[in-house]
Amino acid sequence: MKQNFESRLQNDKDSLEQDFINYLRYHLGRELTSDVDYKMRALILVIRARLVDNWRQTWASYHKAQPKRGYYLSMEFLIGRTLGNNLLNLGLEEDVAEALQELGQDLEAIEAVESDAGLGNGGLGRLAACFIDSCATLQLPVMGYGLRYEYGMFRQLIQNGFQVEEPDHWLAFGSYPWELKRAEYTRTVRFGGYCRDYVNPETGVHIVHWEDAEEVLAVPFDVPIPGYKNQTVNTLRLWHAKAQESFKLNAFNAGSYFEAVAAKNEAENITMVLYPNDSSESGKELRLRQQYFLVSASLQDVLANWERFNEGYETFAENNVFQLNDTHPSLAVAELMRLLIDEKRLPWDEAWKIVTATMAYTNHTLLPEALETWPGALMWRLLPRPMQIIEEINRRFLAKVAMKWPGDVERQQRLSIIGGHGEVRMAHLAIVGSFSVNGVAALHSELLKDGLFNDFYQLWPEKFNNKTNGVTPRRWMAAANPGLRALLDEVLGEQWVTDLSRLSQLEGYLDDPVFRQTWRDIKLENKQRLAALIERETGVRVSSNALFDVQVKRIHEYKRQLLNALHVIHLYARIKRGDTANWVDRVVVFGGKAAPGYHMAKKIIKLINNIARVVNGDPEVGNRLKVVFIPNYSVSAMEVIAPGTDLSEQVSTAGKEASGTGNMKFMMNGAVTIGTLDGANVEIREEVGEENFFLFGLHADEVQQLVPHYNPQDYIDRDSDLQAVMHLLESGHFNQHEYGLFDDLIAGVKAYADPWVTLADFRSYVDVQEQAAQAFADVEGWTTLSILNTARSGKFSTDRTMQDYNNDIWQLQAVEVS
């Protein structure tokens, strides 16, 4: 009897139930009484099997249509837990929950034990995860390329108020249950060695051989990325570094075991840990290895796939586009040139035409110090051939600059890819080698053109554009906020999940008392979930009736967690002096990680925790004010935090934040923003209306004008509240047994050279905070604010962002999968 290989797995409750038992028993060797970790893995295998059906069909549809393809290159994909999201996108939540219930199992308990995938750090990686989710939902043929880190950045513990890092071994089981190893697509990446030039005697063509290089295998592991109920499953391909099988075999046989193993470990260290600390030379080298490993393996993969169906490269640029997520994959410019001229034997001009027609660069920072540079000596030692190519790209580029601005040597120096000390400026390489350069918020993109990249903008104004960030409503509303999802389904229909513009219809319910009460009930339930998380993680019990004032994001001086902390001290000082008329109880929530080598950021964490210890331990304060720092901030934590937040803190120094995406997650879930005119805050305020946004602080141009004459003492001298705050800090009230602990923070905030002008914004911040508190006390008024924030957040869906990328940059055609 002929077997039907096209049969598909069934999604009814009984089939799901039986498959769960089968995977648990026959694949994992366990029973229903086993540990919940095994049940989680069994359930993932059940769902993955169903994704594979759609995955195969997606590849078949792409093969048949042969569409233009997009490739998203990113060092981070912070995808978080995946089980709940995939159940949502497949439409299987209810059937799976019922199947498990019949077996005496709880879906929520099983979902809770899945680890957050350690593939990213913060906003950059979460954005990439949202992007690929939206691409699949829009049925765009886009493939993500990243690295399969064995350890995430780190797991954050708080000990005596200090951040302590411990390894985040998220792959402790040895594999990620969602992935499929695709060893047949293994690529080889080279490092070190030297270059030998010669001329082909028959053709006279100059050829360069990269010789005596160390070779590392890049083994791909594919993760399915399903669209929302549309049968499309795109691919996130993650590269794992593996030593050549013949690693120093002669040395091993000769008895030099440690030499053999050292070579193997060095090769495989490339994908051992996310973002090694690059404060040391060895850390810098490892990070550079990671970046080149990503782009070389990925580009080889794309070219190999192209050659399966095409001869030659005449139409390659018409059918492929690469999006570089920040400067980390900028080496793709040089590597694609190397592959085309050294391995495919294309002439330089023809190869360069292909590169500059296929590369697009997204910038994520306005801080000059955050733009990556690599020492020339390190580049020559580790990547001699790509470095040769970069120098030739730069030589030809500077010739064009000299032609545009004859004799302007200073401009040539500013624009050069190679800096004055021989360092390679990765953002410059990305801009020179790309046809599109975009910022990630309207203000950010304008500041790039006017400031950071002004010379490039004058040379190529047509390259520059804006693509305001977004977040996926599947993860950040439908999955994270089930109560709100049910309400929106009822009043808007389920289509809102893929068409967030429908949220505007909520304004029609502003005067409906039943709707408003339901809205408040949902928010209270979400706040109770957050309160339970706070107590579980910090031991602090908080009231769900208080104003939940939340700032969770990477700890950095420009994000100004310190300004928030100063306001907390101000509130504490008010309570202690009895200034509590019209008081509104408040829970101030902080969360976020500081880079291991970032001394000041780690000191800010310590200060926040010390303030929390004093405030929470003072019986005179009671429930009027609670302060908590949630350790090990993550995607799964944010899925509880965002729906439970009342006031969203977006207080970065104006002109410093590129966009932000946490601000969008909070807004969608009905939080009200207190913030500066920075990043995407500008557009959030435009969408929600200035009367529904708590604005404070200097504008970006005002910050620029102030910095040269900034004198923090002036602000202290004329503000008694700020004097009281500084007195408590300087007297050691929050570090009574840790003498001088916060002297560097105090000196920094009082320094003329403080680029974040923290004290200049203190008065405005305190005043607006009081306005926010009084607005929260007006229950009906705050309900209106909350509903309007959700109703007017439709612009900030990554579905819109991806459509903008596609319309203006990629120009891909959607491919329907049947």
From TrEMBL:
Regions crossing the membrane: none
UniProt-listed Gene3D superfamilies: Glycogen Phosphorylase B
Positions of post-translational N6-(pyridoxal phosphate)lysine modification: 665
Subcellular location: Cytoplasm
Cofactor: pyridoxal 5'-phosphate
Coiled-coil ranges (or none): none
One function term, GO molecular function aspect: pyridoxal phosphate binding
GO biological process, alphabetically ordered: glycogen catabolic process
Listed EC numbers: 2.4.1.1
Keywords in alphabetical order: Allosteric enzyme, Carbohydrate metabolism, Cytoplasm, Glycosyltransferase, Pyridoxal phosphate, Transferase
SUPFAM superfamilies xrefs: UDP-Glycosyltransferase/glycogen phosphorylase (SSF53756)
Protein name: Alpha-1,4 glucan phosphorylase
Source organism of this protein record: Thiopseudomonas denitrificans
